[in-house]
Design brief:
This protein has helices at 2-46, 60-73, 84-101, 131-136; strands at residues 103-106, 113-114, 127-130, 140-141. With 146 residues, it is mainly α. It has a two-stranded antiparallel ribbon. The protein has a two-stranded parallel ribbon with strand order 2-4. Helix 1 (2-46) packs parallel to helix 3. The structure holds zinc ion.
């Protein structure tokens, strides 16, 4: 009797502590997932699979559709889910697109000029975007680096 009470107490303690121990890990993976999904959305916009209609967030359906379209074009299993393969292809496709169309650095914290170097004009958190996208967003070439 005493022994089983002890076992029960231990069990309860583990049952309470175990989820607590995993909490920070779960929190981290959620934020990583969010970052990944932001990256995925941006790549899909750059590549033209998602249409950026100005500031509004994309619904899960829109993103899933865009991912499925991308997977179909790249001969990947059409699941609508971003797995490692899809992510790798997305990354490569975006890089190729930027190389082909020319890419520039734009500031995310103020400023209306785009730059050829990420270090120009001490930009904070600059973004690497295609030149047409930068121009569409109203950026003009920097006089120092262009
Ligand atoms: Zn510059």
């Amino acid at each position: 009797m005493q022994k089983s009470a002890k076992t029960l107490a231990l069990f309860v303690a583990v049952a309470i502590c175990l989820p607590l121990a995993f909490l920070p890990v779960v929190g981290l993976s959620v934020s990583q997932q969010e970052m990944q999904s932001l990256y995925v959305q941006r790549a899909l916009v750059t590549l033209g699979y998602l249409e950026d209609d100005g500031g509004t967030e994309f619904s899960g359906f829109e993103i899933e559709d865009a991912i499925m379209w991308f997977q179909e074009e790249y001969g990947l299993p059409v699941t609508g889910i971003v797995d490692d393969d899809t992510l790798t292809w997305l990354f490569e496709a975006e890089e190729e697109f930027l190389e082909e169309h020319g890419a520039v650095w734009i500031p995310t914290k103020g400023g209306k000029k785009y730059h050829s170097s990420s270090g120009c004009s001490s930009m904070i958190d600059p973004r690497y975007v295609s030149t047409p996208e930068a121009e569409e967003l109203g950026f003009t070439p920097c006089k120092k680096c262009y």
